Amino acid sequence: MPRRPNPAGRNPRAGRPSSQRKTHAAKPRTPKAPDAKRPGVPAPQPAASAPAGPFVLGAIPGATPGKWIDAWQDRMPDNPLELRPLAVVAQRQAIVAGDVDAALVRLPIDKTGLHVIPLYDEVPVVATSTESHLTAADSLTPADLADEVLIIPSDDVLGLRADTFPNVAPPRFAPPASTEEAIATVAAGVGFVVVPMSLARLHHRKDVAYRPLEQAPTSTVALAWQADRTTALVDAFVGIVRGRTANSSRG
């Protein structure tokens, strides 16, 4: 039977008009949960939290916590750091009594109930009048101090005794009450004082010169806090002192 002609060249395979075509609604895609186990994708970590309020750091004379304080201010803006000066004789009591959260102390210290991290050793220096013949050398040894008057202040932090250096002469007056007073005494041309470099800088005077002393006791500065009070703030400061970055894990 002959086919009927296709009027107007209509394609018999053409679909229905768009208005009559069946449409299928696209199914919404369900977003995939992030896969923490995929290689190269770290698992999300909860943000470290710390209680509100200041962190109180004690510091003995001569301590230099400036770089750690700067790092704290950048990393812990919601917890201001309060720096509290401490006398060496009162450093342990301030920690035990809870007056400070942690402290920069001088060793030795009774470590009972404390965590103590030694930080650095300080070079001892001889402080003497700028007119003294001892200033002729760039550095000194105990032998250079023979026959000179050794002044040991009552707040000495090096554990010096009259026999620490051989052949030195004792003063004919009572020990000065403080390192500052002792340095003022040598400025007048009387004897010499041996102190850590930081204390020499703290009590710097134009009429006093300082020379490094070899073969002499050093002073160790350490960070200490109560072992049973390792709070989130203490741990954060310990991390800064140890050089941990804001994103590094504890260790």
Shape: elongated
List how many beta strands DSSP finds.
Answer: 8
* Poorly predicted spans: 30-47
| Helix and strand pattern | EHEHEEEHEHEEH
Strand order of the largest sheet: 2-1-3-8-4
CATH class of the largest domain: Alpha Beta
Strand content: 15-25%
Biggest sheet, open or closed, and with what strands and sense?
5 strands, mixed
**What is the CATH homology-level superfamily of the largest domain?**
Periplasmic binding protein-like II
> What integer value in Å does the Rg equal?
36 Å
Number of domains: 2
CATH topology of the largest domain: D-Maltodextrin-Binding Protein, domain 2
Average residue-wise pLDDT: 85
- Straight-line N-to-C gap: 92 Å
Helix amount: 10-25%
Structural class: alpha/beta
Number of helices: 5
CATH architecture descriptor name of the largest domain: 3-Layer(aba) Sandwich
Task: Describe this structure as you would to a colleague.
With 251 residues, the protein is α/β, with parallel strands linked by helices. The chain has 2 domains: 55-121 and 220-241, 3-Layer(aba) Sandwich (D-Maltodextrin-Binding Protein, domain 2); 124-217, D-Maltodextrin-Binding Protein, domain 2. Helix content is 16%, strand content 19%. The chain has 5 helices and 8 strands. The chain has a 5-stranded mixed sheet. Strand 1, helix 1 (66-75) and strand 2 (81-85) form a beta-alpha-beta unit. The longest helix has 10 residues, at 66-75.
Supply the key terms.
about 250 residues, three-stranded antiparallel beta sheet, alpha/beta, D-Maltodextrin-Binding Protein, domain 2, single chain, 2 domains
